[in-house]
Write a structure and sequence with these properties.
Blueprint lengths: L2 H28 L3 H5 L1 H11 L2 H5 L4 E8 L4 E7 L1 H24 L6 H20 L3 H19 L6 H32 L4 H4 L5 H4 L3 H15 L8 H4 L5 H9 L5 H13 L3 H23 L4 H21 L5 H30 L15 H14 L6 H14 L3 H25 L19 H19 L1 H17 L15 H18 L1 H15 L3 H23 L4 H22 L15 H19 L3 H21 L3 H24 L10 H26 L6 H14 L4 H9 L1 H38 L1
Antiparallel strand pairs: 1-2
Length: about 775
């Protein structure tokens, strides 16, 4: 790509984040008109991505970016092919409608500007996931989607249910993100590729690696948690505690499809293995069935749609893992169709709730006359979700049936599961998009009326897009679904599905699906009661297990904290020195790095031995001191002895530093001991003294052995040469040691000074507090 095109793509990525910054300002200035201006931000990004469609449709793979951390080979780069570009168009296109919709839905809310800022952050995060080329860049944006979804789901933070749902989503998806990070690093280690474009050039390296199983499990951990696959499906319906614009965006074009995107993206390098073609279809099929059965039992419009999103994601994962011809076509067609009809239906559900005051299906009916535009949008979404012509959902369902019907016996089993799942989703879709508008008009908490244009524009546009995509199927397939399927399959694919009915097995299966769906829709109340009874008999599900898990984590954390943080300084110091001793000695022994016993250095005279003997005498004096003050004073003997040794062995600067540190230490500690009312002597039991002495001896032995081992390693004088060469040139100093401390390690030295200063201030405050209390006690005694 040219530099200008690269800049425009990066601008399209950055614009949502800029929108998050400027949303409060625009709302403050333009108030109710701000949504129209803010919608121009994702619209501009959408236009930039649409401009690239013809080139990608011709088979081009567009890459670009700039160096992020050149020393580590990291680039802030993007990859645009059929898969990522289609996702980017869905994110920005539906995002434009959502910003408008949020302007109407949240009108008058005190935190409307903050909400829209969060939406823009969410949009930019997901956009970064799908166009990232760098593996670590993808992970960064992946975790940003978890964080921003946490903010959006918990937006109504005064509600306990919202807080719980937000924490649950963050724990599940954030935990999966950590698994993905491990998987990304492992993949990079196996293949040597730090970007997706480089990874695609490695062929079968990843599949043939003995670490493939580990990488597979880690990647699936990230993908399954993010896309709510069984048994991690429970967080997604609970996320409906978020305002409806969040639900519509979350389910249609963003976060929940990130896991599906990841699996589709890695299919060319990780697919076509026994693990991939067994695990993905099995878990996808289980998620499909569980989601649809749970959806049937709901009466809340948003929950009905949420559980069908779970089932739809399962269907996409199932098709992504199928090792049969045309599976990729069915998967991508359904993904695009789902984005359009689910976004449409969620906005319809929000409109119904906003204008009637309820989302309970059993309390809704006869709304078509009062809300004709909403009814038209809901019906369009329901028809597409049901897989009926003339909407793109029909093409998706035909693509799935065409792939599964031509497969093996195993594929036939998944075909039956797909038929059942599609039939139940058909019933739920019409339950949301049709049932509230027909029948006898019911009394609702609010007088039902049509919503504002900001709210019905989005579902109308998405419904119309689903219609146009099916009518102009050739253009749609050649520019969007075809290149997308090619990227998923890793080879060029052409899709020829259209609205023209083709007599055959897929059409017959579609008819069978409609018949089953009509029966379920006709007996929806009975089916709901049956499902509720069945799940009641099954007992607590994963949602309750999550609560038990969190309670267990809290209890475990409390116990661990009580054990390792008992509030006693003595325990902390003892534990610290035990760990230091273990780290030093175990590593030296385990890796065979014990030093040889060193010989005496040249020029080691009787005076040196006298100083060493003096240090030993001082040590014995400390051990046998009868009070703390004497022990502190005699402790200085060792420090001064070491300083003299440094001086005799030719290190006057180091000797001077040692003298100063030791003098200050003794003076300060003596001052503290004379001003604080501490026990004058050590009252520890003999066993405690022996234990503490052993720990101290082991630490000393460990440091001694480590230092001896270090001195026996061949000396590397590269740093010495560097400092000798540049001390005068750069820092204009002849004393190399001083230059190192003041210039080359200036920040480190400043930090050390700051620590000493803070410690001194703390000691001074402690002395003053103690002194003040002593004076107060003396005054009180004198008064008595």
């Amino acid at each position: 790509m040219t530099a200008s095109e690269t800049a425009l793509v990066l601008l399209a990525l950055c614009l949502p984040f800029l929108g998050a910054v400027f949303s409060p300002i625009l709302y403050r200035i333009f108030k109710s008109n701000a949504p129209w201006l803010l919608a121009l931000i994702p619209l501009f990004s959408l236009i930039q991505f649409i401009r690239l469609v013809p080139r990608v449709a011709d088979g081009a793979v567009l890459t670009g970016g700039y160096d992020w951390v050149p020393s580590l080979g990291l680039r802030f780069s993007f990859l645009l092919d059929g898969l990522s570009l289609t996702f980017a168009i869905l994110i920005t296109g539906i995002g434009t409608m959502i910003i408008l919709y949020a302007g109407g839905y949240m009108k008058g809310h005190a935190q409307q500007a903050r909400f829209v800022s969060f939406m823009f952050l969410f949009m930019g995060s997901m956009l970064g996931v799908v166009i990232s080329d760098g593996l670590l860049m993808l992970f960064v944006f992946w975790e940003l989607t978890s964080i921003t979804s946490f903010l959006l789901i918990g937006f109504d933070n005064e509600k306990e249910a919202s807080r719980r749902a937000a924490i649950q989503a963050l724990v599940v998806t954030g935990g999966g993100g950590l698994l993905l990070l491990a998987g990304v690093l492992l993949i990079q280690n196996i293949t040597g590729a730090s970007s997706l474009s480089a990874l695609f050039e490695t062929g079968n390296v990843l599949r043939d690696s003995p670490l493939y199983l580990a990488a597979f499990i880690l990647v699936l951990g990230g993908a399954f948690t993010k896309s709510a696959q069984f048994p991690f499906h429970f967080w997604l319906p609970n996320a409906m505690e978020a305002p409806t614009p969040v639900s519509a965006y979350l389910h249609s074009a963003t976060m929940v499809k990130a896991g599906v995107y990841l699996l589709m993206r890695l299919n060319p390098v990780m697919g076509d293995t026994a693990l991939w073609t067994i695990v993905l279809p099995v878990f996808g099929a289980a998620t499909l069935i569980v989601g649809t059965l749970l959806a049937i039992r709901q009466t809340d419009l948003k929950l009905m749609l949420a559980y069908t999103t779970v089932s739809s994601l399962g269907l996409m994962v199932m098709m992504t893992g199928m090792d049969i011809p045309h599976a990729a076509e069915g998967a991508v067609l359904y993904l695009i169709a789902h984005s359009l009809f689910k976004g449409c239906l969620f906005m319809v559900a929000g409109l119904i709730d906003h204008e009637t005051g309820t989302r309970d299906l059993t309390k809704l009916g006869g709304l078509a006359e009062a809300m004709p535009i909403t009814f038209a949008a809901g019906l369009a979404g329901a028809i597409s979700m049901g897989g009926l012509p003339p909407f793109v959902g029909f093409l998706a369902k035909e693509g799935i049936y065409e792939a599964l019907a031509a497969g093996s016996l195993c594929a036939t089993i998944f075909l039956l599961i797909a038929i059942l799942g599609n039939a139940l989703m058909f019933a739920v879709g019409f339950g949301v998009g049709l049932k509230p508008f027909i029948g006898k008009k019911t009394d609702t908490p609010k007088h039902a009326h049509e919503g504002p244009a900001l709210m019905w524009l989005g579902p109308i546009v998405l419904g119309a897009t689903a219609f146009l995509a099916a009518v102009f199927a050739h253009f749609f397939n050649s520019h969007f679904s075809g290149p997308m399927a090619s990227a998923v399959a890793g080879e060029e694919i052409e899709i020829h599905l259209s609205l023209i009915p083709h007599i055959g097995v897929p059409l017959a299966l579609s008819v069978l699906t409609v018949i089953i769906a009509l029966v379920v829709y006709w007996r929806l109340s009975e089916a709901r009661a049956a499902m509720a009874g069945m799940f009641a008999r099954l007992g607590p599900g994963p949602d309750a297990w999550f609560d038990s898990f969190m309670r267990g984590i809290v209890r475990l954390s409390f116990k661990v904290t009580q054990t390792v943080q008992p509030g006693r300084l003595e325990f902390y110091i003892t534990a610290t020195f035990c760990i230091i001793a273990a780290v030093l000695l175990v590593s030296l022994v385990s890796f065979g790095e014990l030093p040889q016993w060193p010989g005496l250095p040249d020029g080691f005279l009787l005076g040196h031995w006298v100083i060493i003997a003096l240090a030993v005498v001082g040590l014995m004096a400390v051990i046998n001191a009868h009070n703390r003050l004497t022990a502190i004073v005699t402790l200085g003997i060792q420090g001064f002895s070491v300083a003299v040794l440094f001086l005799l062995l030719g290190a006057p600067d180091l000797s001077f530093t040692q003298f100063m540190v030791e003098t200050l230490s003794v003076v300060i500690l003596t001052l503290v001991m004379t001003r604080l009312n501490l026990a004058p002597s050590d009252h520890r039991a003999l066993g405690q003294k022996v234990f503490d002495g052993t720990v101290a001896a082991l630490c000393g032995l460990g440091f001694a052995l480590l230092l001896m081992r270090v001195t026996q390693v061949p000396f590397n004088d590269s740093l010495t040469a560097f400092f000798n060469a540049y001390s005068k040139v750069i820092a204009h100093g002849h004393n190399v040691v001083n230059v190192i401390i003041v210039d080359f390690r200036g920040t480190d030295t400043l930090g050390e000074i700051a620590v000493v200063m803070i410690t001194g201030l703390a000691i001074l405050a402690l002395i003053r507090v103690r002194s003040g209390r002593t004076k107060a006690v003396a005054k009180e005694e004198k008064a008595q």
